[in-house]
Write a structure and sequence with these properties.
Elements: H1 8-18, E1 26-30, H2 37-49, E2 61-64, H3 71-78, H4 91-100, E3 111-115, H5 123-134, E4 140-146, H6 154-157, E5 161-164, H7 170-180, H8 186-195, H9 200-208, H10 212-224, H11 230-239, H12 245-263, H13 268-287, H14 295-317
Parallel strand pairs: 1-4, 1-5, 2-3, 3-4
InterPro entries: DNA_Rep/Repair_Clamp_Loader, P-loop_NTPase
Enzyme class: transferase
Pfam families: DNA_pol3_delta2
Length: about 325
């Protein structure tokens, strides 16, 4: 288990609320991905409910995340096989949870529903959840894990108390990498640390997905431009013909991290170009979980956005 140094304030707020006369029923756990928000949600739920004697999993903690893509994949799950997940949290999952809430908790008088990531709920699923947040069953608490709170319905956000999870300092990530990935080669470790953007999850994913070549190509496009499309072709090959959702998300997060660093190092037209590209990557990151992108075209789009930043810097460099 990771000892997250950025959870201290969230724990203080949670425990203060537990000791109060009337604890709020809905909580929004907000912050970048890779900051341990889901781990906090599970630990906070167990602390609220108490131990489940003789059970590893507490029967009154209900977690909702991406389900099987379709009936075929659902059958694979039932057989204990690997299965492809849907790109969003669907209304059927929310309705199934609501049906459970019509019964009493298995142990005690409380239960917790964890939804992760809540910002990837379909619109109908969000509307269905809103009804439960407006009229919560007695003893039911909701923990909504979100990486992009702005994608949630304003009416959902307004009914939740927010716990914010700050990013980690480079020194903190370095220490956690020593614990979580001690066998990483020094060059890869340093590249992962540089690409982390305050997120341990980003750093670990960088190592697991072997994003060193992609990171190098992104930096080269930013520095040199790509007038002959050669670097974009190399980037497309490095990304691969059929990247899965985890790899695609990691690549977009990497681009965001690289651009985020550059914003504070420039000014004028070049800085505005970086900001514009950053906004486009935010849009792509928001669409990636639900849109069926063509991998080749998306790879070229990533390279083109970076090349535009390089083009904007040419007059200043000249």
């Amino acid at each position: 288990m990771i000892d997250w140094p950025n959870h201290l304030e969230a724990w203080r707020s949670w425990r203060d609320a537990m000791q109060g006369d009337r604890m709020h029923h809905a909580w929004l756990l907000a912050g970048k991905s890779g900051l341990g928000k889901h781990e906090f949600a599970e630990a906070a739920a167990r602390e609220l409910l108490g131990r489940a004697p003789g059970m590893d999993h507490h029967p009154d903690i209900h977690s909702i995340t991406y389900g099987p893509k379709d009936e075929k994949e659902d059958k694979k799950r039932a057989e204990g096989k690997d299965y492809e997940r849907a790109r969003s949290i669907r209304i059927g999952q929310i309705r199934e949870m609501q049906h459970r809430l019509t019964t009493r908790p298995t142990l005690g008088d409380k239960r917790v529903v964890i939804i992760n990531p809540a910002d990837d709920m379909e619109r109908n699923a969000s509307n269905a959840l809103l009804k439960s947040l407006e009229e919560p069953p007695a003893g039911t608490y909701f923990l909504l894990v979100t990486h992009r709170p702005a994608r949630l319905l304003p009416t959902i956000r307004s009914r939740c108390r927010v716990l914010r999870f700050p990013t980690l300092a480079d020194e903190q990530i370095a220490l956690l990498l020593d614990q979580q990935a001690p066998m990483t080669m020094p060059d890869l470790r340093e590249a992962a640390l540089a690409a982390a953007g305050g997120s341990l999850g980003n750093a670990l994913t960088f190592i697991e997905q072997e994003l060193g070549e992609i990171s190098s190509l992104m930096h080269r496009i930013l520095d040199q431009g790509d007038p002959h499309f050669e670097l974009r072709g190399q980037l497309s090959r490095a990304i691969g013909p059929r990247p899965d959702r985890a790899r695609l998300t990691a690549i977009l997060d990497l681009a965001l991290s690289i651009l985020g660093e550059q914003i504070h190092l420039t000014s004028g037209v070049h800085q505005q170009a970086i900001v514009d590209a950053h906004e486009e990557f935010v849009r792509l990151s928001g669409q990636a979980p639900t849109f069926n992108f063509d991998a080749g075209l998306l790879s070229i789009e990533i390279g083109t956005l970076l090349a535009r930043v390089a083009e904007a810097s040419e007059p200043a460099n000249a």
